């Protein structure tokens, strides 16, 4: 039963069928499938497949976009359930995707998980210039800042943003985490980020460890 639901959801996301993705997600939840199982065993692998098809010229930008919409239709149902676990407030987290980059599914997933463990997340959205990160640090004095980049061409913006935060003199008192599909621990070390995590689950673990929580 569970496998059938996970397979149907995978197919709906790959095919970009938002309505089917939402109804299958709901059917999974009704049947007692865990939200995280739906996410990590079906929806995220489906997007990976979409990325592979795009890379091989088997699908094009519009198809990738409708798959992203199908993913978001499912996420809308999962978000309140993941956030339900909200504990006492443990810190403030500023998050954003770098300038030139409009990918936000992975970033949003991190936000949901961070909120789930008790962070107040201030989401700056996508295509965020370095100066807006600096302003947000001044305004909110966050315990941690998360910066995402999802394209190899926008990855250098991670470095630019960290340099801008340092030059503005607002780095002390906040931990900087970076993430996104092309980012690696090695790159994080190279540009002087405090932390890196490959998934939303490990992002939560990493920020908690950095803050000694
Ligand atoms: C959906 C998608 C899109 C959607 C985005 C919709 C949206 N609202 O996000 C649309 C259609 C708009 C899009 C556009 C483009 N895309 Co696109 N896209 C994807 C796709 C298929 C899935 C991305 C995704 O959501 N993955 C699922 C999430 C859950 O995973 P994730 O993003 O990695 O996030 C996880 C971790 O990275 C981590 N994480 C994320 N953020 C953070 C932050 C912190 C602080 C931490 C610690 C961790 C962390 O946790 C997350 C959850 O576990 C990928 C393929 C792929 N395999 O990734 C291509 C892909 C990223 N896109 C690609 C490309 C080329 C493009 C375009 C340039 C295409 C074009 N010709 O126009 C444009 C760029 C637009 C722009 N300027 O940004 C390439 C990038 C290649 C590269 N190496 O640079 C990929 C890899 C596809 C491919 N294989 O070629 N895309």
Give a written overview of the molecule.
This protein has about 210 residues and is an alpha/beta fold. The protein has 2 domains: about 1-85, Methyltransferase, Methionine Synthase (B12-binding Domains), Chain A, domain 1, CATH 1.10.1240.10; about 90-210, Rossmann fold (3-Layer(aba) Sandwich), CATH 3.40.50.280. Helices cover about 60% and strands about 10% of the residues. The chain has helices at about 1-15, 20-30, 35-55, 60-85, 105-115, 130-140, 155-165, 185-190, 200-210, and strands at about 90-95, 120-125, 145-150, 175-180, 195. The chain has a 5-stranded parallel β-sheet with strand order 2-1-3-4-5, with helices on both faces. α6 crosses α7. It starts with a helix and ends with a helix. Cobalamin (B12) binds near residues 44, 55, 101, 105 and 199.
Compile the SSE list and pairings.
Blueprint: H1 2-15, H2 18-30, H3 35-55, H4 61-83, E1 91-97, H5 105-116, E2 119-123, H6 130-140, E3 144-148, H7 156-167, E4 175-179, H8 185-191, E5 195-196, H9 200-210
Parallel strand pairs: 1-2, 1-3, 3-4, 4-5
- CATH topology description of the largest domain: Rossmann fold
CATH architecture of the largest domain: 3-Layer(aba) Sandwich
Average pLDDT metric: 94
Bound molecules: cobalamin
Q: Compute the gyration radius: what is it?
A: 18 Å
């Amino acid at each position: 039963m569970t496998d059938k639901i996970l397979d149907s959801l995978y197919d709906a996301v790959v095919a970009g069928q938002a309505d089917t993705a939402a109804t299958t997600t709901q059917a999974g939840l009704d049947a007692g499938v865990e939200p995280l199982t739906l996410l990590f065993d079906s929806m995220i692998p489906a997007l990976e497949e979409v990325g592979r098809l795009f890379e091989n010229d088997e699908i094009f930008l519009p198809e990738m976009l409708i798959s992203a919409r199908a993913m978001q239709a499912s996420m809308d149902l999962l978000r309140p359930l993941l956030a339900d676990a909200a504990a006492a407030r443990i810190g403030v987290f500023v998050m954003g995707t770098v300038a030139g980059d409009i990918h936000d599914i992975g970033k949003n997933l991190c936000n949901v998980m961070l909120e789930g463990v008790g962070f107040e997340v201030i989401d700056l959205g996508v295509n965020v210039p370095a100066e807006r990160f600096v302003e947000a640090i001044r305004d909110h004095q966050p315990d941690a800042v998360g910066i995402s980049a999802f394209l190899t061409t926008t990855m250098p913006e991670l470095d630019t943003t960290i340099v801008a935060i340092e030059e503005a003199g607002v780095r002390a008192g906040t931990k900087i985490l970076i993430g996104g599909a092309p980012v690696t621990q090695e790159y994080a070390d190279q540009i002087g980020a405090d932390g890196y995590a490959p998934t939303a689950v490990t992002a939560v673990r990493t920020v908690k460890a950095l803050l000694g929580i």
